[in-house]
Amino acid sequence: MPFMQNDDFSKEIVSSQIKKSAHYLRYLLVSTFIVCNFIFLNFYLRYPDEASYIGIWALCSSLFFIPCFVFLHNFVRKKKFRIITIDLSNKFISIGTGCSIGAGVYLLHIYLPSNYDSILFYDTLYLSLSLILNCLIFSLTYLTQRLSYFFLVFIPAIAPILLLQPINQQIFNQLFYFAFDFILVVICISAFALNRMHRKLAKLFIRNEQLIHDAEQQVQYSQRVCNELQQEMQHSKNIENQLHEYSQSLEQTIHERTHTLEKQKQTIEMANSIASVHTWEWNLIKGTFEINNTHVKKLEFRSLEKDLTQALHPEDIPLCIEKLHQHFNHETEIFECEYRVKDENNKWVWVINRGKIIQYNPATSKPMVMIGIFQNIDRQKQDHDRIQQAANIMTHVETGIVMLDEQLRYVEANPYFFTLSNLTPEQVLGKQLFEITDNYRPRQRSFHYSITEQLLKNAEFDAEFEEKFISGKELSLRLRLNAIRDSKQRIVNYVGIFSDLTKIKQQERRVSYLENYDIVTNLPNRFYYNYKIYQFLITNSESIHQLAIIRLSIDRFTALYEFLGNQNTSELLKLVAQRLRLCNPNALMVAYLNRDDFVIVYELNHVQPSIQTICEQIRQYFNQPVKIAEQELIITLSIGVAIYPEHASQFEQLNNCAQQALNHARRLGGNTIQYYTKSHDSLYEKDVNLENELRQALRNQELEVYFQPKIYIHNEQIVGFETLIRWNHPEKGLLHPTQFLPAAQQTSLISDIGEYVLFTAIAQLREWQDQGLPEVFLSINIDAQQLYRGQLIEHLDTALNQYQVAGKYVEFEITEASLIENSEYIHNLLHQLKQRHIQLSLDDFGTGYSSMAYLTEFPFDVLKIDKSFVQNMHMKRHNAIINAIIAMGKAMDLKIVAEGIETQEQLDFLREKQCDIAQGFYYAKPLNKADASQYLQTFHSKFTPS
């Protein structure tokens, strides 16, 4: 399709862009007018006394914008101006708008802050930025049709800031101007990109208009051609009408003559089609075979088998030839055979062929001519096969199928029905529908009557129910009965299908039990408990006086699980569930929620004892020991109670209140009863607030790492520091870890804090080594959560590689409680740490489980004595424990560290016992980074950690 030349095309694009720019300039003027007045209002509200210059600027800008808008709206848009005139007006308005914006920026950014001390630089900075960026965005939106218009606004608008940047950079942050210049560059790039898009769209628009114009011309040409064709067609039609009149008389004659023949032909064809019967004649002398007087093929007796191969199914040829021989030998009076031939669709169909020899050779008595008929019996064959298949299905299907007469008496039944009912045919056939079932119960008789009534009324029935036959067999059945009608829609029989659902129902009950009950305790599970109590509260909310939710938890369950193992713990849960059922026979529900958590629900009234009495009875019931794995154990419970409606009126809130009371009982050490109070809410609120503040502290770097020196006892020289965390709270000051670490250990925050301490400590090591200070190692406390989250090795490798610090300068202090899960994972983790030359210290030894397995199975280098033993060494038992720990550590070639040393007496005692390293206030309190560096500088000898 031809298009205009390139020069004309480019001029058309430019013209389109100028016209569209004039249209969009109105929106730019309106947007800039709004922004300028918005800037004036904001400045006036902030500095009403100094707003005169801004007011004059806003007024002058408005006086420029309004006439320009009126000019564009009423003249340029409605009158046909020359393109050059529109272009000049667009440029004038663009540069005027840019100068107006630039003037405002100059006033706000330079003139007013310089001449009025009361005006803050940052206030005018934000207003000038808002003015220039908003106006540039509007220019980017409305003026990128033509880049010249955009830059006529852009350059005057940004000129004040660009020209005065070298001056302001001396008093203002250089990063601000770098960011501002970067934004201007991005806007310019965006302007070029939008201009390219607008130009492409303009090209497409002009090309589409040209295509539309060409298409309209083609349509006009086509209409002219069509009019000419219609005239020619009308002429041809007139000629055709004349020919038609001539041919009508001839057709009438032919129709009359052929009507009789056609009628006879249709009668014969209809008879053959209905009967599917065809006649045939076989001339054995000539070897010809004709069907319906039509020659079909050569068929000679001497090559009979070969000729039949092309017409008959290969499996049926031997039978057909045998039947022919029998007839030719006068063994049968008539030839009759069923076989398969191909129809017009090339499919095998069954036919029956009957024939007889009608002419013999008088001299030789050999057959000469044989005639006969054959009929298509494929449908009858299929119907017979279906009947036979249906009979086989009824015989072998594992569903009871019966036939009833119109009086609902059994007429016939398949073998499986007798197996299903455990009855004999003599007990069933001839009996009424429910005469073979147990009808002695009145309720069952009424149910049978309703089925019969529904069946006689609707002619069908389908339902599932329980049934007992007179043989004594009880089943869950699904019975479907349907009436069979004759051609006059009279019911002649009923067909019934009995399906045995006994196993399915048993399986459904089993699945329902597994969904709603715990298989270990045989108590309702959490899902069933939530559903039932929620429904109970909804349906009985008006009649319930009080409802008590009692939550129970087995104390020290984790330790019991470790001690007993999985199988014995299951036995323990069974025994606890049995005791709870026995001591709460009047409870609305006793349920098992999870792990060690049980719940009991009581509807309280004047008949029931008080809730306090109920809870005390439960505690007393568990005073008796339970015997598990040939051992007697005393089981104690933590109990939390919430009461409806005093504590909550909705089930979810009531359950949560009981959980809070239970948690409070656990915090008190267990073996106690706690009732929900509002203080529990405030306690949880405090924990949540503390967690949020800790997360904020991590982001704001409010956490600080302190260092407490470790000293060799035999030479009083420093060997290292233990890293300790402190929180420099903006309001509460410096907080001890006991004030916030317990809350962190309940969430993932403890791992985040541990990661922060690890990186900070290794960075400090790098700094001390770069300063040439004595080589020391840092002990870092590792929480159990850090061990099990799986990121400790990754964080350690990252820190060591980042700061180029060897692993031998790092020691991890791990508590006994962290190793309670003596798993293969922990073994592998500790060995990976040893491969990186990290020293391992067993912290607080003697205060927890104090299992000897920790020292024999795990690769520890250091054994640390807890400060509680050091500070109470004057007590005989504590003294003995210290002696035992030191002796055991020395025997196992472990270094012994004692913490909490505050007096000379304590130090002398540990020196006498040959303790290796001391730590405590006697030497120094935990020091911040600067004080620790100063402390380290007082030692001039370098030591290599062992």
UniProtKB/TrEMBL annotation:
<dbReference type="Pfam" id="PF08447">
    <property type="entry name" value="PAS_3"/>
</dbReference>
<feature type="transmembrane region" description="Helical">
    <location>
        <begin position="92"/>
        <end position="112"/>
    </location>
</feature>
<keyword id="KW-0472">Membrane</keyword>
<dbReference type="InterPro" id="IPR029787">
    <property type="entry name" value="Nucleotide_cyclase"/>
</dbReference>
<dbReference type="InterPro" id="IPR001633">
    <property type="entry name" value="EAL_dom"/>
</dbReference>
<dbReference type="Pfam" id="PF00989">
    <property type="entry name" value="PAS"/>
</dbReference>
<feature type="domain" description="PAS">
    <location>
        <begin position="386"/>
        <end position="459"/>
    </location>
</feature>
<feature type="transmembrane region" description="Helical">
    <location>
        <begin position="174"/>
        <end position="194"/>
    </location>
</feature>
<dbReference type="InterPro" id="IPR000014">
    <property type="entry name" value="PAS"/>
</dbReference>
<dbReference type="InterPro" id="IPR035965">
    <property type="entry name" value="PAS-like_dom_sf"/>
</dbReference>
<dbReference type="Pfam" id="PF00990">
    <property type="entry name" value="GGDEF"/>
</dbReference>
<dbReference type="InterPro" id="IPR013767">
    <property type="entry name" value="PAS_fold"/>
</dbReference>
<dbReference type="Pfam" id="PF00563">
    <property type="entry name" value="EAL"/>
</dbReference>
<keyword id="KW-1133">Transmembrane helix</keyword>
<feature type="domain" description="EAL">
    <location>
        <begin position="687"/>
        <end position="940"/>
    </location>
</feature>
<dbReference type="InterPro" id="IPR000700">
    <property type="entry name" value="PAS-assoc_C"/>
</dbReference>
<feature type="transmembrane region" description="Helical">
    <location>
        <begin position="150"/>
        <end position="168"/>
    </location>
</feature>
<dbReference type="InterPro" id="IPR001610">
    <property type="entry name" value="PAC"/>
</dbReference>
<keyword id="KW-0812">Transmembrane</keyword>
<protein>
    <recommendedName>
        <fullName>EAL domain-containing protein</fullName>
    </recommendedName>
</protein>
<dbReference type="InterPro" id="IPR013655">
    <property type="entry name" value="PAS_fold_3"/>
</dbReference>
<feature type="domain" description="PAC">
    <location>
        <begin position="461"/>
        <end position="513"/>
    </location>
</feature>
<dbReference type="GO" id="GO:0006355">
    <property type="term" value="P:regulation of DNA-templated transcription"/>
</dbReference>
<feature type="coiled-coil region">
    <location>
        <begin position="212"/>
        <end position="256"/>
    </location>
</feature>
<feature type="transmembrane region" description="Helical">
    <location>
        <begin position="24"/>
        <end position="45"/>
    </location>
</feature>
<dbReference type="InterPro" id="IPR043128">
    <property type="entry name" value="Rev_trsase/Diguanyl_cyclase"/>
</dbReference>
<feature type="domain" description="GGDEF">
    <location>
        <begin position="545"/>
        <end position="678"/>
    </location>
</feature>
<dbReference type="InterPro" id="IPR035919">
    <property type="entry name" value="EAL_sf"/>
</dbReference>
<dbReference type="InterPro" id="IPR000160">
    <property type="entry name" value="GGDEF_dom"/>
</dbReference>
<keyword id="KW-0175">Coiled coil</keyword>
<dbReference type="InterPro" id="IPR052155">
    <property type="entry name" value="Biofilm_reg_signaling"/>
</dbReference>
<feature type="transmembrane region" description="Helical">
    <location>
        <begin position="51"/>
        <end position="72"/>
    </location>
</feature>
